[in-house]
Description:
The structure holds 3 protein chains of 3 kinds.
Chain A: H1 2-29, H2 35-40, H3 46-55, H4 62-74, H5 88-126, H6 130-145, H7 148-162, H8 177-211, H9 214-221, H10 226-263, H11 269-278, H12 282-310
Helix pairs in contact in A: 1-12, 5-6, 5-8, 5-10, 6-8, 7-8, 7-10, 8-10, 9-10, 10-11, 10-12, 11-12
Chain B: H1 23-32, H2 34-51, H3 88-124, H4 126-140, H5 144-155, H6 159-186, H7 189-196, H8 201-237, H9 249-256, H10 265-292
Helix pairs in contact in B: 2-3, 2-10, 3-4, 3-6, 3-8, 3-10, 4-6, 5-6, 5-8, 6-8, 8-9, 8-10, 9-10
Chain C: E1 9-18, E2 25-35, E3 40-44, H1 51-58, E4 66-68, E5 73-76, E6 79-80, H2 86-92, E7 97-100, H3 114-126, H4 130-143, H5 149-154, H6 162-174, E8 180-184, H7 192-209, E9 212-217, E10 229-234, E11 237-243, H8 244-249, H9 254-261, H10 266-271, H11 303-307, E12 312-314, E13 320-322
Parallel strand pairs in C: 3-9, 3-10, 7-8, 8-9
Antiparallel strand pairs in C: 1-2, 1-4, 1-5, 5-6, 10-11, 11-13, 12-13
Helix pairs in contact in C: 3-4, 3-6, 4-6, 6-7
Amino acid sequence: MGGSYVLRRLYHLVPTLLGVITLTFLVVRLLPGDPALYILGENSTQASVDALRDQLNLGEPLPSAWLSYMGSLLTGDLGESIAYRVPVSEILSSVLPVTVAIATSALILGTILGVTIGAVAAHLASRGRAGLDHALTSTSIVLEGTPPFVVALIAMLFFVLRLEWFPAVGVIDWGDVGGVVERLAMPVGVLAIGEVATIGRITRTSTLDSLGNDYVRTARALGESSVSALTHHGLRNSLLPVITMVGLSFGRLLGGTIVIEVIFSLPGMGSTLIDGIVGRDYPVIQALVLVYALLYVFVNLLTDVLYRLADPRVEL
Amino acid sequence: MTATATPLDVGQADTATVEVPPRFDMARRLLRTRRLQFGLAMLAPIALLALFEPLLPFGDSNASNLQARFLSPSLDHLFGTDALGRDVLARTVAGGRISLVVGVAAAFASVSIGIVLGTVAAYFGKWVDSTISGLVNVLLAFPGLLIGLTAVAMFGAGVGQVILAVSIAFTPRAIRLQRSLVLGIKSNPYMDAARMVAAPTRWILVRHIVPNTLSPMLVVASIYTANAILIEATMSFMGLGIVPPTPSWGNIIKDGEPYLRESWWISLMPALLLILVAIALHLIADGARQVLDPTEHDRGAK
Amino acid sequence: MNSTDAPVGVVRDLHVSFGRGERAVRAVNGVDLELRPGERLAIVGESGSGKSVLSLSLLNLLPKSATVGDTSVVEVAGNDMLHMSESSLNGVRGSQVSLVFQDPMTSLDPVLRVGRQLEAPLRRHLGISRAEARQRALKLLSEVRIPAAERVLDSFPHELSGGMRQRVLIAMALSGDPELLVADEPTTALDVTVQAQIIRLLTELSEERHTAMILVTHDLGIVARFAHRVAVMYAGRFVEEGPVDQIFQRPVHPYTQGLLASIPRPDLRSSGALLPQIVGTPPDPTALPPGCSFEPRCPVALERCRTEAPPLVVLDSGQQAECWRAGDAATTETAVAVS
């Protein structure tokens, strides 16, 4: 039954999750020399160093410190930001939605566009229109090789600075939907471009494969038109590899949001993380890294379940 | 012919023999693949220029000339000059050297460690495998860029640290890949044959298993190099990778960002080269895959 | 079989090649055939003889890269298959003529249930409702002797055995009640015991429904009980054709003789003789010789066979063969090279 598979997977995830938490736990402790001193710098007072050491539980032996860390995580206590002196969970609650919104929108947009373009390219290729298909493939190769921050810069250059179609700065007010869309359009668009290219290529290859497949041949022999065969049989089957890609894509997107948020000055997890790294705000770094990992792990789990639902040959 | 042969199959002379191409034959075939040629054609000039940069007359990449700031591309300065009057072409080539070195070093470090640990995990199994795989799974839960950033956050910035940081990001993938390759080979019948003649473990590994994993790992190394270069560029762009005065494409682009509107060449020239190198490496990887994996289905785009 | 009925399938001067110019692959080089309603024809040929291309041509399912000769004619159930629009062809395929392919393991869509796939052509050609289609599908499954039809309809292809899948495919092919069913090596991928069952099923279905059938195969052994007529294909042409018992008892063309002689027979084993074979390999389809294409392998070839294409010789028995020696080949024993 479906439920049991999910449970089984969650069960297998536990060691990984524990490992992830432990790794983030160790981030602070592996800093060179005395972590508290390293964080606050040479010119800090002994008192503040001691206070920080207490706050981060650095005096305690590793095992019990780990347990305290686990304990506080379970109660939702992510520590306090050194720079802003507010609970990290507060910071998180305001920046998390932004990043998730951007990453998810880019994923959805990129997937839908990518699958469509990939299917069209496959159709063109199968009908012998090599020219257009080649053009699409070459474009996608170029796009895949371009890192998001370069795309973002180019987009900034044209759409924001030269044409001034979109704002370069501004807060995110969730109440003002129009404003949010305007503000997020560029970042989401930039991130989606890379996904369109990757997913498009995979869809194209996968669809071409399934077009040559025997079951498509059977359908055609029984009078199904080629377009209908493509959508009914080709597409559904070709989507299976695409689904597996979605998980990986999300990981890439999460990484991409970091730099995109910086370039477009968006108040999300990424820009907060960078500020944290620059400012040596380790509680923030720890918490954000942990949340990124958790997001990625759960999206992968979801993708796996989706795949199993879509492919009847695989046991759920 | 056996008595069970179907009537029409009889008489077919078995002229076809399967040949396993020897090593340099493989190299020749690789070089004939159009994609690979294209990729190499794009990559080679950049790589060579970058490699021999100190010996070439590009001028000092750090020589600032405040009289000649923000000059747009011209015959004197093919890529223009930047905010400090430095020749962008010189900086780009110098930066390329660093970026390529970092990318290649990180990729090959990851692949090397990956081959070793992946083989160990797959071959010795049980708790060795569980430990290594467990660690790999944990690390793979983090997006690559994140690992790089966190590592730099812990070890500080600089060329060596960045290479280390990026290697940490790619090694888990390499380990996992090598592990599955070795597992696949391990289950091959000829492995049983080797075991039956009681060949020693190390001999089996070195002579049979690892050589067969080298081809796919080489393809993957290409892709890792591309991605490593891109990650380093992203990190340097955010000021958390290679820091000035050492140039790298990432930080040159960053330097140009405030002047993007008017003096776009400062950022865009290195960006262009970055893209070219990434595409070139992907093409090389694709070309290599076509030769090394004959079951490739890609129809159309050749 | 009423010989005055209009033929259900007519092929005239069919030429199909791939590619152009010097290196063009000539797959089918001038095939003529005529099939009466309810008649069963077996086309026998080895790989590369062009038989699969021929079966695809009957439904005009050739790939874009195929070139058909200008004078070629393919008429099925009154439809000019080579000159119809794609949409008209789609209307004909599956309803007036059907094709069953070789590999049942991959010929069904793995993500759709069998019922959906069986009902699809029914709904497309007959325009009936889902419920009615399901009823018909159940009936079809019972016609192809599949028990537990309900359960099969709700299954996925990977849950069925190869033989079951092939029956489902046959049911799908028959769903439109076609006048002609073409089966391209329908049993090659199946176990020997299942092979016999499927061939028997096809024979019975043809009798019950008065459906003409063309069975394309490389295996002469399965042909005997199925076919009324047999055509032997070599290098894109029919080198011999005739009623099944004539072909088996008195083959005219040396190739046919070679094929028959190389069917394993129990009495050979005891005599210690080696199984006869036809030496050599089929000709390169990009470089067919000017004369008889079988000449290089023919044990009784004459000098003129190499340079002049053999004429079609029609015998009283109803057979016809393309051979310079057809006249003097009333023999069943031929010198067959024993390797």
